[in-house]
Each structure stands twice: as C-alpha cells, then as structure tokens.
Write a structure and sequence with these properties.
homodimer; about 220 residues; Arc Repressor Mutant, subunit A; Rossmann fold; 2 domains; three-stranded antiparallel sheet; DNA-binding
Chain lengths: ~220, ~220
DNA sequence: CCGTGTGAAGCTGTTCACAGCT
DNA sequence: AGCTGTGAACAGCTTCACACGG
C-alpha cells in the first residue's frame, strides 16, 4: 500500500514542485469552506487546473486518494505541508535592508506558515543596529558568517545590489545555507548542491512589455 | 533580406520572451566591455546559455547575424530593445502602497530603461495625499478609474492584499490597462486579451523548502 | 574556414484514456 | 457507479548537426 516515494528517485520537476504549493493553498481554502473530500476533477474545475496532472503530481509521492471518492482534504493538506517541509519552521535571513529587503521583512508570506525571518544584514552604518517593527534586528554584513555559525539558517534572500550579490552568495554558501532566493539581476554562481531561485522583476516587466508590443 | 517577423504569426513562448530580456542584459554588459561583435557561441559561454537556442530565438524575428562573423552588439541591442518595447517609455502604476508597493516604487528596475512609475494607489487615508521621495503621489484607490481615463497606463502592478486583488484587477481592465504584474497570492480572472504575470513570493519560498526537504 | 539559420532528433512535461479498486 | 493511478499518446521546447552564406 503506502508505497512511499523512494525519496529522490525521480528529480521532481520545478513546475511540479511549484504546483504542490498551489494545491496546498487550494486545499486550505477548501478546508476553510468546510469541505471534507474533493475529487481531482472538482479540484481542477475550482482552480482552473487539469485533473490528470493533479493526480499524477500527487501519485509521485504515494497513494493519497480513495478510489470512487477522491482525496481527504485535511489529510492531503497535511501530506503536502510535510512534502513542502513547512510543517517545521524554516529560518530565513534577508541580505540587504534597502527598500526591497525591508518590504520583504514586513511581508506576510515571509513570516507565516513555516517561515520566520530571523535577521537582516546590511553594509550601511546608518541602518546597522536599528531594528524594524517586530524587533527584527539589522546586523552588519560582516557579522553574517559568525551569525550563520551559531544560528541555523535554511534560506538566504539576496536583496542587495547586483554588484555585491555574488559576494553575498559566497558568504551564504560558506556559512552552510543551502537555499537562496535571489532578487538581484545577475545569474549567481553557486555549487550544484545549492538551490537558487531567481526572481527578476525587471525581466517580468520586460516580458509584459514584449507581449504588449506584439499584440 | 530583413524578412521582418510576421508580427504575431507564431505565438512566441513565454520562456523565449524571457530570454530576450536576458540577451538584452548580456549585450549591455558586452557593450560596456567595449565589444563590437559577438558570436552566439561566445555569448553562450559567457552567460551559460546554449548557442543554438540563442540563434533560434533571434532568428524568429529576422536575420540579425552575419555569417562567419557573429552579431553586431550595438545593433542587436537596439533590435532587442525595440522587440521588447522598451525603446519607448511605458507608464506603470502601483496598486497598493504598503510595504511591497513602496519598495517597488523605489526599486531601480521599475524606474529605468523604459519604465516609469507614475502613481501609487491605496485605500488607507493615512497614506493618501502623501508623496514618496521623488515626488511620486499616493492617490486614493477610488480615483483610479478617473486617472486611467486621463493618463495612458501600460502596466498595472497589483501589490494589494489577496482579498482586494480581483477588484483591483477589474478596475485596471475597465480602465484599459492591458498588462498586469500580480504579487497577490491569487489567480486573477481577466479577459483573454490581458497579459497577467504572477510573482508569488510564498510559492518561491515553498519551492525552495521542498527541495531542501528532498535533498 | 567560421558562424548563422534551420530541419531533424531528442527530451521533458502535459493530457488522454482506461484498467482496476472501493 | 465513481474516481484514482498510470501507461501511452501528444505537444512543446531544447539541443544537435549540417547546409549555406560571407
């Protein structure tokens, strides 16, 4: 029966991983609506997805469904939270306390449901030593390596200027951080084992601009 | 010769459009480095891309290269800027002047190279009427429809809470805005002709968390 | 001879369709 | 009967490899 996933046999595509998050969000909404079970077909219609894809995605990790019935909402939500690793809190640090860094520090999604921002780092002496509302400290960038030694940091967010992004990456990697969310407009060099996600807002704007032009 | 693109014959994939931005950025760097021409092979090695893909992407829009030589850096940069529509300035408005909205207003990529933020909108009376450094005004959300009538807005950025994201979208669409960059964690409903790009930071974090768990 | 432009091959991810379980 | 789980078909994107032009 519960033929659990061989934990790393097939690599699980980027897109599929992202969909797991979307499913989780959908399930939370269904749960709030008081629904106990849902079929892949109803789920797909509700959120404009493809039912076969939902089943395939879920089946990669085990047999969560009940044939003839569908999926148990609460149980599947728990399974997905576990798969996504948000059942235990992840420590996040923000490198760069400029506009973006401070905004992210206050952003809801960064401080709920499995993630906790534990510190910001910046080089600007005017910012160092202050603390944002919520008591979040802004520390000196030079202190980051020492901080990483005494505090387990799961995810490092890069919100520094493009010029210092690589240097920041190197410090994160040296400190044992294995996942990086990069907002700087550069392709970072990091060892294969490090997970890097790039969020490049300028590219997003330019892509929209492209489609506007070619409409 | 310049067999120009049939302007909308093949749809141009999402991924390809994004790469055009990346190529443009690379070309700007090469130009700063004083390079006059570059072959697809050298370009690929410099930025860790695939040379065949570069040629295919570019060939979709015309014959920009010179056989035996490569591409003229300045000329190709101009072509790409034109294709991406950033040779003429695009007006951007930010809906939501919270943490994220204000950060984006100050973000470099949103105020250079073809984009100009012309206004922020918010419902909070404490924010309305103020203006950020740079003189950018924060206007009342209710005034947005009137604003859209008198000012051409190319791109609307949604940085409001999830609950009001759809309402904001509807107002943008009604006001003739054809491209939307959405930071709210919901899938927006909009007519087919509207271009919507979603940037969901929570999903990015959860995806990283997933890979951490399954490493 | 070098590098572009491009048909063909290869690959990855998505959708279909149905066997089998409940 | 209803719905999951899944092999097989399909579609789209990426990479290869080479003919052709400079």
């Amino acid at each position: 029966m519960s033929r659990r996933s061989p934990a790393g046999s097939e690599p699980v595509s980027e897109a599929a991983a992202r969909r797991l998050s979307i499913y989780l969000r959908g399930l939370q909404q269904l749960e709030a609506d008081g629904l106990r079970t849902i079929s892949s077909h109803d789920f797909a219609r509700r959120f404009h997805l493809n039912s076969a894809q939902i089943r395939k995605d879920l089946a990669m990790f085990g047999e969560f469904g009940i044939r003839g019935v569908g999926y148990d909402v609460a149980s599947l939500r728990n399974h997905l939270a576990g798969l996504l690793g948000i059942d235990e809190e992840k420590n996040v640090i923000l490198c760069g306390a400029g506009n973006l860094g401070q905004a992210l520090a206050g952003y809801g999604g960064f401080n709920s449901a499995g993630f906790r921002v534990v510190a910001l780092f910046d080089v600007d002496p005017a910012k160092i030593g202050t603390s944002l509302r919520g008591g979040l400290p802004v520390l000196e960038s030079a202190a980051m390596p020492a901080f990483l030694v005494k505090t387990r940091v799961d995810i490092g967010v890069i919100a520094v200027p493009a010029e210092s992004a690589q240097k920041t990456t190197d410090a994160l990697v040296a400190g044992g951080v294995r996942a990086i969310l990069n907002f700087a407009p550069v392709r970072l060099r990091a060892p294969e084992r490090i997970f890097v996600k790039n969020v490049d807002l300028k590219i997003q704007l330019e892509t929209l601009s492209f489609y506007l032009r070619n409409s």
